[in-house]
């Protein structure tokens, strides 16, 4: 019997049908970057890529879904929100080429989890040590606000990503409330047992969640957006301390 044809990338069910069967992260990322399941996000990411910011008018924007970044055997996941319009949507790498990424990678580098204290482009030589950046929504949303339907449509990609990381994954840092809210519904699909009531949240909050390959230590951190970092709500030392603790819990401290 012939195998059923793969759904087109603009099918709303494309993530749910194509993510679960991905045998590894390389295949998952390849399928992800062709996704067009959310019309509003597709239109916006491509519009941003056409119009471009003046400072980048001579660059060719990625303007596609942005996959995770980091090794396939990572023991620590850092979970954000979505690519930035002129950051990941421009460069094709999460948390790259904008002020948020400058702050995040300075903290990761200080915690000995990143080779460089910045992330400017996919060709800058940046490497992550035992750490993978994960995004609940892979296309840049207008006003940095994906709709609940868009978040849920994108969810199978993160569920499969965490499932594939499962054998080595031991800790996760969630950046802001969106990262936390996006992670918790995904965990059961990857075999984790989420306690009831859900664990407390907030900056520095620590919860241990049992999983099929061992416990997962979840830590909270304010999102490194300019709104938080410029006001001092999140300092470099605060973020570094969270990542250092996460590295110790994950066994990836250097």
From TrEMBL:
InterPro entries per record: UDG_Type-4/5, Uracil-DNA_glycosylase-like, Uracil-DNA_glycosylase-like_sf
Membrane-crossing residue ranges in chain numbering: none
Originating species: Streptomyces albidoflavus
UniProt entry tagged with the keyword Hydrolase: yes
Keyword set, alphabetical order: 4Fe-4S, DNA damage, DNA repair, Hydrolase, Iron, Iron-sulfur, Metal-binding
Protein name: Uracil-DNA glycosylase
Limits of the Uracil-DNA glycosylase-like domain: 67-243
Gene3D superfamilies the UniProt entry points to: Uracil-DNA glycosylase-like domain
């Amino acid at each position: 019997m012939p195998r059923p044809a793969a759904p087109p990338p603009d099918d709303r069910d494309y993530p749910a049908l194509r993510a679960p069967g991905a045998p590894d992260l390389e295949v998952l990322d390849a399928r992800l970057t062709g996704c067009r399941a959310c019309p509003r996000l597709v239109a916006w990411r491509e519009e941003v890529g056409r119009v471009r910011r003046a400072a980048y008018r001579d660059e060719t924007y990625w303007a596609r879904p942005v996959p995770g970044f980091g090794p396939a055997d990572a023991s620590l996941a850092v979970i954000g929100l979505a690519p930035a319009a002129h950051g990941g949507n421009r460069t094709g790498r999460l948390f790259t080429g904008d002020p948020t990424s400058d702050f995040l990678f300075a903290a990761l580098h200080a915690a000995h989890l990143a080779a460089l204290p910045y992330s400017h482009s996919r060709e800058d030589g940046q490497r992550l040590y035992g750490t993978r950046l994960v995004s609940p929504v892979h296309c840049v949303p207008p006003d940095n606000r994906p709709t609940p339907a868009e978040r849920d449509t994108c969810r199978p990609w993160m569920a499969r990503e965490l499932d594939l990381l499962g054998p080595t994954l031991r800790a996760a840092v969630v950046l802001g409330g969106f990262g936390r809210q996006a992670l918790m519904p995904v965990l059961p699909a990857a075999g984790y047992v989420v306690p009831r009531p859900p664990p407390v949240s907030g900056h520095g909050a620590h919860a241990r969640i049992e999983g099929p390959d061992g416990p997962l230590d979840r830590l909270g951190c304010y999102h490194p957006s300019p709104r938080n970092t410029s006001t001092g709500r999140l300092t470099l030392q605060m973020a570094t301390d969270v990542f250092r603790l996460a590295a110790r819990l994950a066994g990836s401290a250097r």
